[in-house]
Amino acid sequence: MISRIVLGFGVERQRRQLVGILTAFFICSAPIMGQSQKQTAGSYPIQPVLFTAVNLNDNFWAQRIKTNHDVTIPFALGKCKETGRVKNFEIAAGLKTGDFCTEFTFDDTDVYKIIEGASYSMQISKDPALEAQVDSLIALIGKAQEPDGYIYTNRTIMGDRAHEWAGKKRWEKEEDLSHELYNIGHLIEAAVAHYHATGKKDFLNIAIKAADRVCEDLGPGKLQVYPGHQIIELAMAKLYQETGNKKYLDEGKFFLDVRGPNGDPYNQAHKKVVDQHEAVGHSVRAAYMYAGMADIAALTQDASYIKAIDDIWEDAVSKKIYVTGGIGSTGNGEAFGEAYELPNMSAYNETCASIANVYWNYRLFLLHGDAKYFDVLERTLYNAFLSGVSLTGDKFFYPNPLESHGQHARSPWFSCACCPSNVTRFIPSVGGYFYAQKDKSIYVNLFAQGTAQFKLPDNSVTLEQKTNYPWDGDLQFLVTPQKTSSFEVRVRIPGWAVNKPIPSDLYSFEDTFTEQPKVFLNDKPVALTLDHGYMVFNRKWKKGDRIHIQLPMPLRRVQANAKVEADKDKLAIERGPLVYCAEWPDNKDNRVLNLVLSPDVKLTGEYKPDFLKGLYEVKGMGQFASRTSATEVKTEDTEVKLIPYYAWAHRGAGEMTVWLPDKKGSAQPLPAPTIASTSKISASHKARTLMALNDQMVPKNSNDQSIIFYHWWPMKDTVQWLQYDFAKATAVSSAKVYWFDDGPFGGCRIPAGWKLLYKSGETWIPVKNKTPFEVTKDGFSTVSFESINTDALRMEITLPKEHSSGVMEWSVE
Ligand SMILES: [Zn+2]
Is 449 helix (H, G, I), strand (E, B) or coil? Predict the structure, then answer.
C-alpha cells in the first residue's frame, strides 16, 4: 500500500484502442487502426472492423453506450472544469492568472481522453452541443501550446517552480514521473479520434506540432530517454498511420528500443523490451507497452517484439490474472504480483488495467487470429472492466477487488482521475471489438444484438446478430451479401462453452458438463469442429443464409489452480461470460463472507428485468457459519443469492465475495460475541476499515494484506486513538493488539508506543499495567493490567517519527 501507491498515482494510466475511429464509414481494409488515410507500410494480418461499422441495438451494451454519452461524458467534463483541469489550460493560454491548480502533472490527459471519448460517441449519436464544447476546448488547448509545439501546462504555468515530478528542464524527469510524453501520447490519440469524428484538422494539427517537437528533441543522436509512462508508442504508430510520415513510427520504435536494461521493473525498464518474457511492474504501463509493441511489430514486421509479448501473455494468463480478467494484483506499485499471488480483498485490478488488457489481447488476436485472446478479452470486458463504472455512469472504481468487508464503494471522481476519463473513451468504441476481417474471412468474436457491415475484396456483406447475450447463449446470424459469392464466416465458440474458462491451467471448471454447443446452417445441423477456437463456415453465401448456434449456458463452478493460495478450498460461479458474486443485501443478515456453498448444491437462476437494470440472479442452498466460542463453529442452512460481479456496489457498502468456500472447514465464520466484537468502535481518524479491529481475523503477519486492516497513513509523529464503547459495563484486565507494518516499501511501521485508558465518568484514566506495553511485529502485543469495571476503553498510539502505523486486530478480556 501506501507510499508506493501514491507514487503510483503518477502512474496508472490509460489508453485507447486501435479500433479507433474511422471516417464515418465502415470496415477495415486499412492498416493498423483501420483508419489510415495515407498508404503506409505494414499492417496486422487481421484487420479491425471499426465500431462505426457496427450498430449494437441490444439491451446490454447499447444501454452502456447511451449512458456514457448522456451521463459519463458530461459528468467527467464537468469534473474537469470543477477541479481546475480546464483552468490549467486557461492559465497556460494566458487567459487567466494563477498557479497550476491541480495535483498531478498528468491531469491534462483527462481533458484529452474525454475529448477522445466525446469524438467516438459523437459518431454514434450526433450531438452539436457536445461538438461545440469540444471545439472550444480544442481552441483553448491550442492557445496553451507553446510556440515550438511543447505542451505541458504545469511547466508552461509554473516555469522554474514546476512540479517536483516535472524537473527544471523539459524531458529531464521523463523517465521518472514527469509524464510529458504520456500527456502528448494522449493528446495524439484524442486528436486523431477528433479528426475522424468531425473531419476538422485543428486538433490534429496541434498534435502534429507536439509530435514534431518530440521528434526534434528526442531520438537517436539526440536526447535518449524512454517514456516513464507508456502510451506514446501506440500514439506515434497511430500518427504514422494517419499522416504516412514514417518519422513518427521510427520515434515510437525508438521509445521501445531505448527502454532498459537495468532500470526499474516498475515501468518495465529492467530489461530491453525484446528480452522481457514475464509480466512485471505497473500493470497499466505494462499492458499499454505490450499493445504498443504489437502495433509497431505489425508495422515493422519485428518478430522479436512478438516473441516477447507472446511469452509475457503466457505468463500473465497462466499465473497473474484474476477470474474476473483483472490484472495488477497489488496496490504496491499498482503492479503485477508474483506468480499465483492473487489476493481477493486487496486485489488492485485498476479499471485502466482492464482497458489496457483488452487492448493488448485484441492486438494479439489481430496478430495471431486465435480465439483464445478473446476468451481473455471477453472475461475482462464483462467483469473486471464493467465493475469499474456504475450502471448510472457517474460513479467509478479505481481498484476492483474480488472481496469486500464493506470498505469499498464507487466514487464520483478521484484526484488521480485516469479511470473515469478512460471509461469515457473506452465504452463508445466497444462495438469495434465484435468483428474483424482478413481478406475474405469474417471473424465474429463477441455477441450482441445488432448489425455489422463488411467490405470484402469483391463483395459487401451485412451480418445481423439476433441474440439476448449475455443472458442467453442462443445466437442467430443472418448473412446478407450484396451478391452471391464465396467467403468464410468464422464464429468464435467461447472457451467457457467448451470447458475451458481460460486458455491456461489457472482456472478450470470444477463440475462436469458434457453438452456441446449446437450448430445449424440454414436449419440443418452441422458438426462442431473448431479451428483456433472458431466454427468455420466456408461456402458460397446468398441473401437469407442463416447460422444458428446454441451455446449452453449452465451455471458453472470454477476452481483456481492449487497454487493460488487465496482461492484454496473455494469456488466461483460463472454463467456464460459473467462471473458472479455474493453481495450483502441479497443474503442472510447482510453477511456473505461467512457463507459456504458446497459443490453438490443445485444452483438455479432467473432473469429479473427490473433488478439492477436487468440481470440473471442465481441462488442455491448454502450454509451460514458463525462462531459460538473461540473454538466452536455452528452452521445453519441458508439460501445464498448471487449476482453478476459487475453489478455489485450499487446498494451501499457492505460485504461481497466472488470466491465462496466449498466446505465448512474453509468457512470464515462470523465472530463469536466478545467484549470487542460487541463494542462500538470510534477513532481519531474515521475510516470504513475500522471494522478490522474486532473481526477476529488473525493476520498471518503484520503485512498480511489479504485481510482488512486499519491505518493512519499518511499521518506520522502524532498521538492517535482508538476506542471501544462496550455494550455494557464490563470488568477487563488485559488487551492485545496486532500492528500493521507494510515493510520497507510501505508507509506504516509498528508504533513508537501505546497505552490504554479506561473511562470513569467523563474522564479517561490510564490503566495500571502489570506487564509492559509490548510493541511486537508479526504477532500480538499484549498487556495485563489491574482489573477495572468500565464502559469504554481507549488506546492511545504514538506514531513513529517518520512513519505511520496501523492496527489489524484489537481484543480485550
Ligand atoms: Zn486508472
Answer: coil
**Model pLDDT, residue 331:** 87
CA of 110 to the centre of ligand 1 (A): 11
599 CB burial (10 A radius; 0-12, 13-18, 19+): exposed
Active site residue 581: no
Q: What is the pLDDT of residues 777-803, one digit of tens each?
A: 999 999 999 999 999 999 999 999 999
Catalytically annotated residue among 28, 80, 416, 418: 418
**Ligand 1 ion local residues (Cβ < 5 A):** 12, 350, 352, 418-419
Distance 61 CA to ligand 1 centre (A): 21
Cα gap 591→608, rounded to integer Å: 22
pLDDT band at 757 (very low <50, low <70, confident <90, very high): very high
Q: What is the pLDDT of residues 195-209, one digit of tens each?
A: 988 999 999 999 999
Dist CA 521 CA 502 (whole Å)? 28
Q: What is d(CA 267, CA 165) in angstroms, rounded to the nearest whole number?
A: 15
Q: Kindly tell me if the per-residue pLDDT of 766 is higher than 60.
A: yes
8 Cα: distance to centroid of ligand 1 (angstroms): 10
334 is catalytic: yes
How far, in Å, is the centroid of ligand 1 from the Cα of 400?
A: 11
The answer for residues whose C-beta is within 8 angstroms of residue 425's C-beta and 6 or more apart is 14, 16, 113, 114, 116, 117, 120, 193
DSSP annotation of 54 reads E
Distance 417 CA to ligand 1 centre (A): 7
* CB-side neighbour CA atoms (13 Å) of 567: 26
Distance, in Å, from the CA atom of 462 to the CA atom of 783, rounded to the nearest integer, reads 76
Ligand 1 centroid to 285 CA: how many Å?
11
Q: Which three cell numbers stand for residue 338?
A: 508474483
**Considering the chain, what is the average pLDDT of its residues?**
93
- Selected catalytic residue, list 334, 350, 583, 655: 334
pLDDT in tens, 358-379: 999 999 999 999 999 999 999 9
Cell matching residue 193:
479520434
Q: How confident is the model at residue 612 (pLDDT cuts 50, 70, 90)?
A: very high
Res 36: pLDDT: 35
Q: What cell was used for 244?
A: 504516412
